[in-house]
Amino acid sequence: MGKEKIKINPEFYDIMPVEYQELVEEGTYGKEDRGWKDVGESKELIEEHSLCAGCPESIAFRYVLACLPAPEDTIMVGSTGCTSLVFPHVAVHNIHSLFGNQNAVASGLKRALSYRFPDKVKDVVVLAGDGATVDIGLDMTLQSWFRQEKFTTICFDNELYANTGGQSSGLMQKGFVAKMAPAGKKFDKVNLPEIAKVSGCHYVAKMTVSKPNRVEKAIRQAILIAREVGPTYIQLYTPCILEIGKQMMEGLQEMRDSEGPNKRFEFEEYISEEAKAYLETIDPKKKKKKAITA
Amino acid sequence: MDSKSLIGTYNKKGQKIVDPDYLFFEAPRERHFMTGSEVVREAIKRANVDVSIAYPITPQSEAAAMVGDLYVEGYVGEYFRGENEFAVMSECAGASFGGARVFTTTSGPGTLRAYENFPMWVGSRLPIMLNMMVRGVNSPLSIQPDTLEIGLIIDTGMLIWHAESAQEFFDFLLKGFLVAEEPDVHLPIAVCIDGFFVSHTKDDVLIPSADFVIPPYNPYRNPMPAMDMESPPVRMMRDPFVMKSNYISYATQASWQQETRAACERSRKHTIRLLGGLIEEDNSDAEILIVSSGTAVAQGREAKRLLAEEGIKVGIVKIKTIRPFPYEEVRQATKNAKIIFVPEFNVAGWMAREIKSTIPDNHRVIAGPHVAGGMTMPPEVIVTEIKKVLAKKKETVHG
Ligand SMILES: Cc1ncc(C[n+]2csc(CCOP(=O)(O)OP(=O)(O)O)c2C)c(N)n1
Ligand code: SF4
Description:
The complex is a heterodimer.
Chain A: H1 18-26, H2 56-67, E1 74-77, E2 94-95, H3 102-116, E3 123-129, H4 130-136, H5 138-146, E4 152-157, E5 160-161, E6 167-168, H6 192-198, E7 203-208, H7 212-228, E8 232-237, H8 251-257, E9 268-271, H9 273-282, H10 284-293
Parallel strand pairs in A: 1-2, 1-3, 3-4, 4-8, 7-8
Antiparallel strand pairs in A: 5-6, 7-9
Chain B: E1 16-17, H1 20-26, E2 29-35, H2 36-45, E3 51-54, H3 61-73, E4 78-81, H4 85-97, E5 102-106, H5 108-114, H6 117-123, E6 129-134, H7 148-152, E7 159-162, H8 166-181, E8 189-194, E9 202-208, E10 212-213, H9 247-275, E11 279-282, E12 288-292, H10 295-309, E13 314-319, E14 321-323, H11 327-333, E15 339-341, H12 350-356, E16 365-366, H13 379-398
The complex binds thiamine diphosphate (TPP) and iron/sulfur cluster.
């Protein structure tokens, strides 16, 4: 489909905002090998954002959007939080409705789209903070996985409630002193990736966003598996530099410091047997081999 | 794709898509004796519903399960049981954002569990059909009929219709989709009935053949883009999301709220045409009036008959739409009344409050009788209340 849907009627071209003209000219809708390397090379699907300067959520957002396999048929679902300040600038359809209900909205949305467009692939991708995913929205996160809803859930884990000023969240580390955990958080960081596995996710990955290649691979796999097999989950460490007292330039180092061996954001990936089998069928190398032997 | 152009064609189930006016006003109807729950099944069968999401709560569980049967039979596109009412209403929102015609039902505690979704549906202009089979809310736990929950959703911005009988219920459900989906309205609608009194009792209902359906929802006749990436992705969230502390943000919020309220008011013209008015009057010239909605009106009608036997003339004004509220109609219908009784099945007396805030000389309004918690309201209770008030009046006049 590519840019069919967004192209401008020539009569109206000159009155369209420059950003929109650029989106049509240089946007990457329909580009098969799109990925994080397009960032800075072509028009991104994110115009600007109102996150704090240097917030790692911004680069994470740009990678996610650059790596969507088919943005021209992708609908995103967000939640209240710092990410909801970014979505108004995102050039794929996206829904904000309430805080914490993102996986419920996505369930209804995906079902409706599958019914309305039986012959098309419409990807649904949830992107929300850790408070939304793990605390207030946990039942809906899990229930959508139990039900095997076919969409991807991405959690921007900044280990606290950033948008309301740094309160303790379920994904915060034990002992961390924060608002509403004045004597230090009393319980362990909730291990959502483990929970995701036993709740029926077919692809689970946990990482920081310091390595874009890795983020790209995870996003693509998660979305492709969600299309055909079932729910997938990605947890990305996007530290809230504001609330942990870091400077604008220190986000990347903070991520690197947290992803070493045995650190809490050491790269972890799980692929179910079903999903592995599916990935084999779409692996271009394997496909070729098959063709030769056949 | 214009829905009108589909008239005469067949849907996936093989039902013929007909002009709604034909289905409502001309198609031959057959008499059936059925419960309110069965009415839901029959209405939804003829409604081209794409998605329905269910959660059990008495007294709507039976109806919600029957919609599941319709899904298996191919009359409804997609159906599942959600995890709780808050989630269900968000799932409905997702489906509606995705361009589907959506139906769901709930009652009492379910309505309150779901509450945060309703103003969001309104602000997002999602024309979801919610059937509320109203019942008591905790505590103490009660599953009995009680209309308190209607009063609690009154200012969410949804269209709210209150059906008195099984027949009205059938018609309101089908017509409700059409009004809610008009582009100049495009709002969620709650079609309410009194739990048990209407949901679980059998009544005569005239219904057209199930070979006919109303046209499907056209998500592109919509004041907002459907979230399906079939239209250009404008870089603005569907619900204007303004979290900034500046004048333009406040003004955007305020004007959108005004617009959604105006959209509710704009539903009048469509509703009046389809329901034959927002109120129904019977002998409203009388000096004593009974004004209410739902089955309280049915009880009032019986009271009217009993009082007539004693030579006391009473008129009835039935309110069909709680939102938009028929302000002008009620003012006109009550202009000759000296005393206005408002019988209600709830402890708060929200209907009496609505009427008091609508009409001049509102000392004429007697907020009662009202019963709650599942108590019935035999017509005699209304008769007694009316006589008591009349006797007091006489006393004060003579004394
Ligand atoms: C029902 C409800 N409860 C609370 C809030 C207040 N609230 C808004 S954003 C937020 C925190 C979001 O935290 P998280 O999901 O971790 O995202 P972050 O801002 O950290 O990116 C809270 C508590 C709300 N908007 N709605
Ligand atoms: S508050 Fe924290 S998470 Fe939110 S934008 Fe600022 S740095 Fe990022």
